[in-house]
């Protein structure tokens, strides 16, 4: 699975800089939730720069180990914090500017609980990008996820195009 998630073909079809470049700025604290082997975490760390911070969270220690091995001995070790999360608790200790949830929300048992924790840690002007696989997650299932997010206190901002995916960028509601 980790091989499918991090290879040159994916990098070309789902270029992290094209997908995330419009949203991630230097100095941001970013949560890569369900980071897997860190396909996006590494690129986010480069985009957020030396003054930025990435929290790469995953349920699976094996995935975190792959990312740990990838950044070992590099400058990125200082910029990426690995976080072993639990099924219904991310365990974030800090507030974040941006959350990426790429191909992970459909895997969670309790989406509402996850969304509540994210919102509690999202800074007032923060955003979350939810991306789900096109064929694995139906339009209806994706709309249900967006509804749960709206009911939890997020508002949709835009629907970016991501290859073979359904995607929505959301921010905190002002109410
Ligand atoms: C399909 S992979 C996607 C990995 C990565 N986001 C990517 O696009 O390359 C989904 C990942 O989400 C993780 N995951 C699933 N549910 C999770 C949860 N509740 N909290 C944290 N990670 C979770 C899985 O362990 C897996 O590594």
In summary, what is this structure?
The protein has 175 residues and is an alpha/beta fold.
Give a description of the structure.
- The chain has 7 helices and 7 strands; from the N terminus they run H-H-H-E-H-E-H-E-E-H-E-H-E-E.
- It has 175 residues and is an alpha/beta fold.
- The chain has a single domain, classed as Vaccinia Virus protein VP39 (Rossmann fold, 3-Layer(aba) Sandwich).
- It has a 7-stranded mixed sheet with strand order 3-2-1-4-5-7-6, sandwiched between helices.
- Strand 4, helix 6 and strand 5 form a beta-alpha-beta unit.
- Helix 6 packs across helix 7.
- 38% of the residues are buried.
- The mean pLDDT is 96.
- Bound molecules: S-adenosylmethionine.
Major sheet summary line? 7 strands, mixed
Beta-strand percent range:
25-35%
Task: Assign the CATH topology.
Answer: Rossmann fold
User: Could you list the spans in which at least 5 consecutive residues all have pLDDT below 50?
Assistant: none
* Name of the level-1 CATH class: Alpha Beta
By CATH, the superfamily comes out as Vaccinia Virus protein VP39
Structural class designation? alpha/beta
The strand count comes to 7
Write out the strand line-up for the largest beta sheet, numbering strands in chain order.
Answer: 3-2-1-4-5-7-6
Order of helices and strands: HHHEHEHEEHEHEE
**Which architecture would the CATH scheme give at its second level?**
3-Layer(aba) Sandwich
N-to-C span: 41 Å
């Amino acid at each position: 699975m980790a091989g499918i998630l991090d290879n040159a073909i994916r990098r070309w079809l789902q270029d992290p800089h094209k997908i995330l470049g419009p949203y991630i700025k230097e100095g941001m604290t970013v949560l890569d939730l369900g980071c897997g082997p860190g396909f996006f975490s590494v690129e986010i760390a480069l985009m957020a720069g030396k003054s930025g911070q990435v929290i790469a969270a995953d349920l699976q220690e094996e995935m975190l180990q792959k990312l740990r091995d990838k950044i070992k001995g590099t400058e990125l070790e200082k910029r990426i914090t690995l976080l072993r999360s639990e099924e219904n608790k991310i365990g974030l200790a800090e507030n974040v500017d941006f959350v990426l949830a790429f191909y992970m929300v459909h895997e969670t048992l309790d989406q509402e609980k996850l969304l509540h924790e994210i919102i509690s840690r999202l800074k007032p002007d923060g955003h979350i990008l939810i991306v789900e696989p096109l064929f694995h997650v139906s339009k209806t299932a994706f709309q249900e996820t967006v509804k749960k997010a709206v009911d939890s206190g997020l508002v949709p901002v835009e629907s970016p195009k991501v290859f073979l995916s359904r995607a929505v960028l959301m921010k905190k509601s002002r109410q």
